[in-house]
Fold this sequence. Notes:
alpha+beta, Lipocalin, 2 domains, twelve-stranded mixed sheet, nine-stranded antiparallel sheet, 44% strand, disordered N terminus, signal
Amino acid sequence: MKLSKKAITALSFTLGASLFISTAFADTLLGSGYDRLKGSAKNTAAQMEKGLNNYTIDALLTLKGNDQILFQTTISKKIDTTKQASEETTVTQDSEGKSSSNYSYSDKKQSVWKNGVDNKYHVTEYPDDAARGSRSLFTNPFNEKGAPEIEKIVDAVVGGLKDYVQVEERPDGGKAYSGSLSEAQVPAVVNAVSSYGIQQMIRDQSRMEKNAKMTDIESDIFVKKVVGTAVENKAGILENVTGDIFLSGKDKNGAQHDLTINVVVKLSGVGNTKIALPDLTGASVETVNQSGGLTSKYVGTYKNNIIMEKDGKLVKIGERTFEITSVENGKVAGKYYETVKPGFEANYPDKYNFNFEYNPSSTKSLSSFTYKNAKGEQENGQVHENGPGKIYVDLNIEIMNNNSYRSSNRPDFDGQFSRVFEE
């Protein structure tokens, strides 16, 4: 099941910003309030994974530069742990004000996914043996590998800053947390991390979004202020968390620029969230075989063009080639590479070139292959048939669980490939 399609913009950029905000916001939750809130966060995550029957999570991430929106994404996800079902809608707005949306639905027997580009529903039905058993629809981050070590680092960064949090008992039995750090109170390590993280996020966004109105901040990046609030109900569950980070930095010409990152996360609908399979009557629907639907007849070479706009015209600057070299005993092998014409290398950096082999199993609801990207990092990909003489390829996907993944193809990547036939 594809949960997101817009890419690195909504995935790596969002996750990177969220990670940075989490670190900085943690530094505002100090002293006894810090310990109490951390305990509440752990309890909330544990209940979301195993405890709450159903609930809704809404999240908003906004990046502004000089008071103009450079990037914004909203996510609304419904989870029903009893029925083993989930539903998610994501809307992303870029620096030009253009929006894109994705929708997904999943239960133990099937998944449905649609993006705003082709307006087509992609439906995958799982075999009975893949549908049995329960699966985690939410992963507790405090149980992830390395989480205890990260927690110790955050605790150490907090250090002696113990007096900047306020904890207020609410009339309903819950608690309200608030805290802020000024420029002088922000630890040096946070400024060091922010300098690197913000530069990476801006560069990734600029590379992925053509004509992005992103300022290339290069130096003297520092956190001017951090403000955070959190609301905990009487059951010890966080219902609302907000964070604002105000930063400043200079571009290559020495001009000063201000950036603001805002994150809002809300947990609601506990016990009364309803999830329903979307009505596909009259809709454009494509059925996707859960194991890719590939047989020996798909052995061959598939290509599509790498295209860019130049001087008001569409220009072919290269080709993407996906070769399926063998499909034997259920195993699929092949290679993928990209070629760019001389003079256009800077317009299409980080070209992919890899071999792959994997075994799409009919007993699994999700099959994928691994490969190395241009940086030598291991990533996951998926390929399936997409009509006569056509295949569809997803690269840079994040496996969420046995039945779902997040797709993060670059905006300039075309996953539709056509077979090259000998004349």
